[in-house]
């Protein structure tokens, strides 16, 4: 569920453009007006505003905004005002310049978008940068990361709800075999993650849990096994046995960056609201805030599933996302973020 709040009576693109022009020219900038308009328009409405602004004033609204506002506020307004495919293309291009630290951004674009949205992002990327997204991903990554990411960004998944339970059972066994053999970058494992619909993958992972007693990306033990270990083993032996059993899971080595990315891809494909809740939790945890990641998540999920993310955030942290953002940000940046996640009234 989206968190975006739009007024019942939306002004025309011409009126919005006129108000934004007044907010950006003359003495001082009217940041409140920028927030009042842009934070309460959907993607189609924002596109019409940009098109009307350019036709009326022969100016690029994004460039005018960038020239008048700055810092984190400028970043979130800029990302939000872009068309979704344009935003994803820019996020991917910037992430590729900072690899390997930004593999997760490429993964998010590949796994958390619909097939149509991913295809549009790839089209926009090629038109904007004169290279295909998959070509740039291949050029800027290596080894197992390249195998996984190129497969994910080139995916064109079926979006329907149909599920083949026999296939789900068979592929759960394949996944378990590869994970047990520590073949985490095996072509069959990557093929399953890259071509199956998200509904089919959910069924496969449920079959994995049913057949083998633990979720594919979590170290868990069936109650009888855990009880037996607790009853008969000393602490050292217990740790040894749990270590052996844990090696049959994707959390076998939590410091392995490839396994971390693989686990994140699985979570993003099947439970994106849980994945993004964790991202938000980590970027606002402890001293300092990762404003870039906070901005990215809010700008890309507001029109998708931000209400679900907010629910997960409160359940996991016993504090509202609104409260966490207010504690970690300030000024117009805080106001823009809060408006996008649906805080307050219109």
Automatic annotation (TrEMBL):
<feature type="binding site">
    <location>
        <position position="334"/>
    </location>
    <ligand>
        <name>Ca(2+)</name>
    </ligand>
</feature>
<dbReference type="GO" id="GO:0009414">
    <property type="term" value="P:response to water deprivation"/>
</dbReference>
<dbReference type="GO" id="GO:0001786">
    <property type="term" value="F:phosphatidylserine binding"/>
</dbReference>
<keyword id="KW-0041">Annexin</keyword>
<dbReference type="GO" id="GO:0005886">
    <property type="term" value="C:plasma membrane"/>
</dbReference>
<dbReference type="InterPro" id="IPR009118">
    <property type="entry name" value="AnnexinD_plant"/>
</dbReference>
<feature type="binding site">
    <location>
        <position position="28"/>
    </location>
    <ligand>
        <name>Ca(2+)</name>
    </ligand>
</feature>
<dbReference type="GO" id="GO:0005737">
    <property type="term" value="C:cytoplasm"/>
</dbReference>
<feature type="binding site">
    <location>
        <position position="68"/>
    </location>
    <ligand>
        <name>Ca(2+)</name>
    </ligand>
</feature>
<dbReference type="InterPro" id="IPR018502">
    <property type="entry name" value="Annexin_repeat"/>
</dbReference>
<dbReference type="GO" id="GO:0005509">
    <property type="term" value="F:calcium ion binding"/>
</dbReference>
<feature type="binding site">
    <location>
        <position position="328"/>
    </location>
    <ligand>
        <name>Ca(2+)</name>
    </ligand>
</feature>
<protein>
    <recommendedName>
        <fullName>Annexin</fullName>
    </recommendedName>
</protein>
<dbReference type="GO" id="GO:0009409">
    <property type="term" value="P:response to cold"/>
</dbReference>
<dbReference type="InterPro" id="IPR018252">
    <property type="entry name" value="Annexin_repeat_CS"/>
</dbReference>
<dbReference type="Pfam" id="PF00191">
    <property type="entry name" value="Annexin"/>
</dbReference>
<feature type="binding site">
    <location>
        <position position="329"/>
    </location>
    <ligand>
        <name>Ca(2+)</name>
    </ligand>
</feature>
<dbReference type="InterPro" id="IPR001464">
    <property type="entry name" value="Annexin"/>
</dbReference>
<dbReference type="GO" id="GO:0005544">
    <property type="term" value="F:calcium-dependent phospholipid binding"/>
</dbReference>
<keyword id="KW-0677">Repeat</keyword>
<feature type="binding site">
    <location>
        <position position="288"/>
    </location>
    <ligand>
        <name>Ca(2+)</name>
    </ligand>
</feature>
<dbReference type="GO" id="GO:0009408">
    <property type="term" value="P:response to heat"/>
</dbReference>
<keyword id="KW-0106">Calcium</keyword>
<comment type="similarity">
    <text>Belongs to the annexin family.</text>
</comment>
<keyword id="KW-0479">Metal-binding</keyword>
<keyword id="KW-0111">Calcium/phospholipid-binding</keyword>
<dbReference type="GO" id="GO:0009651">
    <property type="term" value="P:response to salt stress"/>
</dbReference>
<dbReference type="InterPro" id="IPR037104">
    <property type="entry name" value="Annexin_sf"/>
</dbReference>
<feature type="binding site">
    <location>
        <position position="26"/>
    </location>
    <ligand>
        <name>Ca(2+)</name>
    </ligand>
</feature>
């Amino acid at each position: 569920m989206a968190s975006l709040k739009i007024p019942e009576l939306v002004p025309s693109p011409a009126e919005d453009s006129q108000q934004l022009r007044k907010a950006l020219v003359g003495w001082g900038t009217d940041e409140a007006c920028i927030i009042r308009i842009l934070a309460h328009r959907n993607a189609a409405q924002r596109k019409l505003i940009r098109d009307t602004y350019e036709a009326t004033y022969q100016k690029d609204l994004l460039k005018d905004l960038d020239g008048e506002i700055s810092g984190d506020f400028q970043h979130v307004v800029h990302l939000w005002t872009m068309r979704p495919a344009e935003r994803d293309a820019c996020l991917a291009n910037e992430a590729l310049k900072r690899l390997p630290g930004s593999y997760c951004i490429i993964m998010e674009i590949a796994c958390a978008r619909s097939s149509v949205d991913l295809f549009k992002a790839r089209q926009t990327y090629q038109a904007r940068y004169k290279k295909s997204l998959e070509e740039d991903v291949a050029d800027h990554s290596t080894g197992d990361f390249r195998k996984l990411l190129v497969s994910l960004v080139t995916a064109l998944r079926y979006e329907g709800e149909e599920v083949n339970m026999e296939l789900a059972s068979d592929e759960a066994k394949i996944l378990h075999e590869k994970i047990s053999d520590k073949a985490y970058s095996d072509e069959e494992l990557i093929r399953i993650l890259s071509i199956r619909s998200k509904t089919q993958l959910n069924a496969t992972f449920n079959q994995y849990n049913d057949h083998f007693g633990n979720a594919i990306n979590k170290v868990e033990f069936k109650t009888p096994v855990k009880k037996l270990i607790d009853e008969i083993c000393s602490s050292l032996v217990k740790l040894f046995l749990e270590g052996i059993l844990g090696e049959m899971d994707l959390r076998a080595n939590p410091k392995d960056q490839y396994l971390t990315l693989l686990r994140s891809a699985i979570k993003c494909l099947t439970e994106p609201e849980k994945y993004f809740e964790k991202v938000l939790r980590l970027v606002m945890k402890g001293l300092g805030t990762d404003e870039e990641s906070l901005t990215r998540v809010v700008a890309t999920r507001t029109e998708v599933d931000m209400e679900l993310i907010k629910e997960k955030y409160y359940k996991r942290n016993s504090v509202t996302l609104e409260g966490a953002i207010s504690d970690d940000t300030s000024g117009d940046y805080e106001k823009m973020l809060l408006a996008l996640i649906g805080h307050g009234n219109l």
